[in-house]
Structure formats: structure tokens, C-alpha cells
Specification:
Layout lengths: L9 E6 L17 E2 L2 E2 H10 L4 E8 L4 H10 L6 E6 L4 H15 L7 E6 L7 H12 L3 E6 L5 E5 L2 E6 L6 E2 L3 E4 H13 L10 H6 L3 H4 L4 E5 L10 H18 L7 E20 L2 E9 L7 H13 L5 H4 L13 H13 L3 E10 L9 H12 L3 E7 L5 H4 L3 E11 L2
Parallel strand pairs: 1-4, 1-6, 4-5, 7-12, 15-16
Antiparallel strand pairs: 2-3, 6-11, 7-10, 8-9, 13-14, 13-17, 15-17
Helix pairs in contact: 9-11
The protein binds magnesium ion.
């Protein structure tokens, strides 16, 4: 019997509609920047990493059309962001605005998982999003929860009434996942039976408020949350988020970073007198060198371009302009170091590089082991393959006018 193919179609509503009164300053907290990117955009990109998320709706502040226009501009490159809409006076109203926009854009099925996320929780991990989708796709309400590390007291103003047993307590986070049908039902019930004295502060509370008959068959399950999935509420939270970022960047990479990527590089330099020949970082004695602004290491230039291609970082000329006197006669291994740094800064690994040098002269085979050692010292552990060939006397390399090099590089998310 053929296995039935199960395709989950999940959706996310990211709420960034608050006025952020607890974070002083001219900007609401969801517009504060972390590494040059507003908090809500971190969340959007985290969700787009999961292929089961078919659409995202972003909810912005109702009273700030300019802020919403900025949000639209920021997500323009992401076709799965279906809408940027104005929120309402309460969190639940804002969620309802997002769901209205979602149902206008797509025909939702009863069991489609819908995840609601705070725009001020930028460090949500791909793993947590996946766990919430898994649970919700199985027909449950999934709430990420962490265990309080402090002792929790029940108060009546400033009088302590009692100590609550910690093992029975959980601190709720987002994303909170609900099967579409239940979320629509809970929002409808909320609209008909508003309770201004006890507004629902999350989706779990919305479902808890439903009469038994309306939530029958739906369990609310606690899923392991993450300490680092903090909500930016106070200025010190932003400092903490910055401190947690290197770990988070390693997981996110650049957005939406493919798990594997390949880059291609090609370079040519002409032979020139009075120059030293440098290939793969190795000086090759008693041979005409190559013309160029730097040391003209054609092999390393092709390799650098392949690395930059694999991480989507442009080309060697953009990074190291050949009119910049700083790079005059520069050892090209320094360019290679910079390119490798870029790969690492994106939290990615350089897995493999394959390089072919086309030269009629000199004979390169004796130098390949030294080149390998030299390149591996900069690249770090990876599969490195170096090949040399001639072009059988044809073309400019065949006429001994210069050397060409081709490189292919593969990088991966860790
Ligand atoms: Mg070059």
C-alpha cells in the first residue's frame, strides 16, 4: 500500500500592533532594531524558513499608517507574506484582524494549523516553530511554555497570600498554534462575549474561555518553550537579545537561507614580465608572473568569487576594488580570508571546493600539494579538490598568453 502523502498547510499571524508603552523612546518596541533589522522582521523570516508555512499575515499598529507602509516595504521581497493589515485596540482584536485578512486571501481548511506569534519575540527558533506545527497539525492547541525558575507568590496587593507550587506553573510564550476551525470559533465567541474585566492575553486563554461544548475534542498541550525566545518588553531585553544573537544567527543564517548553496567563480590573468607567479598562495619560482593589481593569484580569485557566489555576497571586485591602493600587490589569501569570514558570519559551513586551473605552462602538478595546504589553512577543514589542465594549444591559454581558473564551492547551513 502506498503511503498516504500528508501535506500540512500552515499559516502564521504575526502581531506587531502594540504601542509598546513599556519600552521608552519614539518607537514602539516591535520597530526597534536588532542588528539593523526591526524585531518583527526577524519573526517573519523565522516563519518563512519553514516550508510548511504557506502564508504569513503581519498585523501593524492601527493608528500608524506610515509604520504599516514601512512594514509593507520591508516584506515586499517575500511572496508568502500575504498581507500587512491594521490591528485593533486589544491583542485579540489584532489577531482577529489578521485572521480576517488571511481568510480573505486563502481558503483555509478546518484543520490547517494557524500559528499566532508576538512580533516582539525575534529569536524564536525554527525548531520551536516546527514543534508547534507538528502538534497543531495533529489537532491539538499547542502552547510553548517554560518553567519558572523563581519562586512564585500569590499576592493581594502587597500582602503575600501563598507560595504557588512551581511544578504546576508554566510561563506561556508564542507561537501558539490552533487548528483553524477552533481559532475561528474562539474568536467568534470572544466577539459575542467580550469580557473587558479579563481580556484574553493569549490564544490559550481564548480557548480556555470557550464553554466545554465548543472546545470538546481539542486538548491544549504545553510544548517545551525556549528561554531565548524572550519577549522584548523593556530596554534591557533588547540588550539580552543582542547577547543571544550569535547563537540565533547560526541557526537562521541569511534569510531565507537554503540548506545548501553552490557558487561558481571564473578568472583570467595575462602573463606579465617582472612579476612573480603566485598560484593558490604558493610562489612558483622561475616563471613569468601574471598582470594584476594584487598579486594576481588567478586561482584564489576564482575561488573567492565562488565562495561569494555561494553565500550571495556579490563578487571580488565589489569587495576589493582593483583601484583601491590598499590592495596593490596584496596577497590574495587575504581576500580568501575575508570571504571565509563572510561564510562563518552567516553561520554557514564551507563544505567543498573544486578548482580547475587552465595553463599551458608551467607544469602545476608538482605544486598542487603545497597549494592545497596553503588553501586549507585559510578555508579550514573541507573537501578541497585541485586540478590543472592545458587547453591543448588552443585559445589564449594555449598560446601561453595567460592562465584561467574555474571554481565551484558548496556551502551548507550547520
Ligand atoms: Mg582576478
Amino acid at each position: 500500500m502506498a503511503a498516504e502523502k500528508v501535506t500540512t498547510r500552515g499559516y502564521a499571524v504575526i502581531v506587531a500592533a502594540g504601542a509598546g508603552r513599556r519600552c521608552p523612546g519614539p518607537l514602539a518596541k516591535q520597530f526597534l532594531e536588532l542588528e539593523g533589522q526591526p524585531l518583527y522582521l526577524w519573526s517573519v523570516k523565522a516563519f518563512l524558513q519553514d516550508p510548511r508555512i504557506h502564508g504569513v499575515v503581519l498585523v501593524g499598529p492601527a493608528a500608524d499608517e506610515a509604520a504599516r507602509a514601512g512594514m509593507r516595504e520591508a516584506v515586499r521581497a517575500f511572496p508568502r507574506v500575504l498581507a500587512v493589515v491594521a490591528g485593533g485596540p486589544t491583542r485579540t482584536d489584532s489577531v482577529a484582524c489578521g485572521i480576517d485578512a488571511l481568510t480573505e486571501q486563502v481558503a483555509l481548511a478546518d484543520n490547517d494549523p494557524v500559528l499566532i506569534h508576538d512580533g516582539a519575540r525575534p529569536l524564536v527558533s525554527a525548531e520551536l516553530i516546527a514543534r508547534i506545527i507538528d502538534e497543531t497539525a495533529a489537532g491539538r492547541v499547542a502552547i510553548p511554555v517554560t518553567t519558572p525558575t523563581a519562586t512564585v507568590k500569590q499576592l493581594d496587593r502587597n500582602t503575600i497570600l501563598k507560595t504557588l507550587p512551581r511544578e504546576t506553573l508554566g510561563l506561556a510564550q508564542t507561537p501558539q498554534g490552533l487548528p483553524c476551525k477552533l481559532l475561528l470559533r474562539a474568536l467568534e465567541y470572544y466577539r459575542r462575549h467580550p469580557d473587558p474585566a479579563r481580556p484574553a492575553t493569549d490564544e490559550s486563554a481564548l480557548v480556555e474561555a470557550l464553554p466545554e461544548a465548543l472546545r470538546k475534542g481539542f486538548n491544549i498541550v504545553a510544548v517545551a518553550g525556549e528561554t531565548r525566545n524572550l519577549k522584548i518588553t523593556f530596554p534591557e531585553d533588547l540588550r539580552l537579545a543582542r547577547a543571544l544573537l550569535p547563537q540565533s544567527l547560526q541557526e537562521h543564517g541569511s534569510f531565507p537561507a537554503p540548506p545548501f548553496a553552490t557558487g561558481f567563480g571564473y578568472d583570467v590573468h595575462a602573463f606579465a614580465n617582472q612579476r612573480e607567479l603566485v598560484l593558490g598562495g604558493v610562489k612558483i619560482p622561475q616563471h613569468t608572473g601574471l598582470a594584476g593589481h594584487s598579486d594576481a593569484d588567478v586561482l584564489v580569485h576564482a575561488l573567492v568569487d565562488a565562495i561569494l557566489g555561494a553565500v550571495g555576497a556579490g563578487d571580488i571586485g565589489q569587495l576589493f576594488p582593483d583601484h583601491d591602493p590598499a590592495y596593490k600587490d596584496m596577497c590574495s589569501l587575504r581576500f580568501l580570508e575575508k570571504a571565509v569570514e563572510l561564510v562563518r558570519a552567516q553561520g554557514r559551513l564551507l563544505l567543498a571546493a573544486d578548482i580547475t586551473v587552465v595553463a599551458e605552462t608551467p607544469k602545476l602538478a608538482p605544486h598542487i600539494p603545497a597549494m592545497r595546504n596553503c588553501l586549507l589553512e585559510v578555508l579550514g577543514p573541507c573537501q578541497l579538490n585541485l586540478k590543472a589542465t592545458t587547453s591543448e594549444g588552443l585559445g589564449f591559454t594555449g598560446r601561453r598568453e595567460g592562465i584561467a581558473a574555474y571554481a565551484i564551492v558548496t556551502v551548507a547551513a550547520p
